[in-house]
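Same chain as my last thread, 418 residues:
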Amino acid sequence: MMKKIARIMSLALVLQMLAFTAPASAEENKELSGNLSILAWYADEVAQGWIDHFNELYPDVKVEYQYAQAVQPYMEKLQSMLLSGQLPDIVLIVAENRVDLVDGDMLVDLTETPVAEKMSDSCYKQVLFRDKVYAATTGGSIGGLLVNMDLWEQAGLGEDPKTWDELIDAMKALSELEGITAFANPVSDAACTIESPLFGATYMETEPDYEQKIAAGEKTYADYWQPVFEMTKTDIYDAGLMPQEMIGVPWDTVVSNFALGEIGMIMGASWNFADIEAINPDLNYKVMGIPNKEGTAKYYLGDCLEPALGILKDSKNQENAMAFLESLYDEESVRSSEAQVGLIGCVDGYESLFAENPVCADALVEGMQAGHQFMPQTYWQKDVERMRSTYVENVQAMVLDEKTPEECAADFDAIFQG
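reply #2:
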């Protein structure tokens, strides 16, 4: 999904010379009017829920919403608008453009605004970038191991695994069921591979500043990633718990096979729920976290980065833009996001529609609300798209015995130091 266009550094040059006046809080501007423009990749019906609520509060503001498909078409559209001077007020901020937008000094710093104050602690922790907040987020997605609980019981398994070794033992038990593939890893997407939450469980509680240590030259990426790659290579791929031929199976087919009861567990997230339940509405499954070797931490897929909307410094409607971001935290907007596309709300005082969903209720509490989620591209500080594509290629290469864990980990340092 995540393919990046040429770097946006030229955009920084376009905006560096533009003047900026810090926006006032919307709370100081109850009577707002004028215009507001937004560029994002959310479907029109999703954005319309936010806009309708905003216009209930501020009926005199005319909102123009422009949609561009994720990810490359969106980046191209944003670049075109910035270079032509047709600047949107609010833009989507994601791993693929955040470094360039921040380094180019293009975004309003929201750290000391009511927007940041409205975030839950978990959201604030996950959206923080270089010690500042540039995007408004009200929640996101949650995922991990999607486990067929009927097969789990058939394999004689009970409680969720508490350690990595217990998880591997569970995969082995599933592999002994006739006609069942134990596990499938979506190695085409860095956000969804089992290596990501395993990394989080291994390091994020003990060394959350690992990126800073790498930048300071105290550690290397290989110091952190090689042990993780070695664990999955030895314990899963070499052990045959995920057959090599799974690499060539389209992921929508894998999801379908899981829904039909042919795979014991897959890596997935809340964005897969609708497809799974459309195929098999009676499937008995749940989301499980990935524990570390010692059993001291358990992490999930996903992050609190939806919606991730920020304000361009050169916005001509900054007061309106700030008011719009603040309105996202109202129950009406959060509820609309959940109902439309399953973006899970994580806002203090808000009771999510997913809180009683047996598929992800535990994951919501243990993962999203606790801040125990990990996606590597959320933390990378440089060449994010190149890091992501290398990650994907290298996990595939490990599965196919084309590269060693040591070689895969070393590639991250080659990119960072290049």
